[in-house]
Amino acid sequence: MLDTTHHELRTANRRAQRGVTVMLVLGFMGVFMIILGTLASYALTQGTYGRALSAREQALHAAEGGLEYYRWFLAHNPSILTAGVGLVSPYQYVLSDPEVGTTGRATVTATANLQCGALQWIDLSSRGTAEMNAIFPRTLTARYMRSSVAEYSYIVNANVWAGASRTIRGPYHSNGGVRMDATHNSDVTSAVTTWNCTSSYGCNPAQPTAPGVVGNGTNPTLWTYPVPTVDFTSIGVNFTDLKTKANTQGGIYYAAASGSENNRGYHLVFNTAGTVTIYRVTNTEGYPSYSSQYGDGTEYSVITNQTLLGTYSIPSSCSLMFFEDRVWVEGTANAKVTVVAATPSNTSTAPDIYLNGNIVYNDYDGSDGLTLIAERNVLLPLVIPDSMEIHGIFVAQSGHYGRDYFSTSDLPSQYDPYATRTQLTTVGTVVSNGRTGTSWSDGTGFLTRLDYYDQQLAFSPPPFTPSASTDYRFNLWREQ
Q: pTM value?
């Protein structure tokens, strides 16, 4: 009886152990299947992700190929770059590999920016897809344009001295030698290897073979010379062409005012409403002055009488104003506009532009801008604010930019304080054929100068702003 009971107990134990073993095996198999399923899922996910990455890369190559093809297309169709004629948009581009065939496709959309019927730049958008999987598109955008002078703080076609009282932000270039004593944070370049730096440029004693850039300015590691010359012939605008455009394409045009050359001109006041008020100047006062380019003379820049002509909206399709006379400018610009003072039909005179007061923008998001182009000089006249702020691109095509020298001994007592001004803040670009200068060694002129280039306008300048190069290239290249 006892043996039978023992046998039954042993049998029951063996059965229980086999049941536990089965449960353990099933448990381990379950864990293994979970791990195997996870690994398989991970492998599949990585494979899908890898294929998606490959498709995205192929799509990017297709988008780039579309942009590059369209650049070739524009370069071989000069009529497009003149007046936008013949622009094809959208254009379907196929990216092919000789070994595997089609690898991607791109749709290129082109938009021409026109002013007065002339092309300013072309905006391109290229949407690329991969042939292997079109659900991962990539889109690239770029602006096709010539490099603008607005990419610089200063471009000067002569030897120049940037004094210690200046702070410069943005590239500074001269086709001559540069004496750089200013605080600056960007490239300073000269087109010459050596030059004669005399005492008039702060070199005492003179350095007949001074390096292209010399001085006590900050960051000399940013000084480079020689570099290619900026061609002032290509920078120069065609005044006859701009006169015709302003006169026939909906811009604003005024012929020379009546009266003697020194007593006439036009006074422009820009308004926040997007308008400009124009006066005809009928009389001025002149006082002895001196410029580094022309020597002694008389500057007739103080307006004593003027007549209101009217207030006009700035034309959006042809934001060009052309005056065959001297021009005084001030106010708040609420548009992108270019003002030209030139006499293409009269080679015996070349008018100046006077920065008559503060020139600012209504908005600083790049939607507003002002380019002033003078056939001769762009000058800060005698009567101006003590702390002056000017925004714009200032081009003195054959003359110079600056504030000429006024001696207090030559001025009426009421104008004595104007010989010296406290601060000039310039936001934008100065282009000057001759030597620039806004401060003089006797302490007159501006005591402090702050020069900042306007990055907003560098790749979106006002119409007909001069180009720094004849070559077109991509600007504002980015992925959406």
A: 0.88
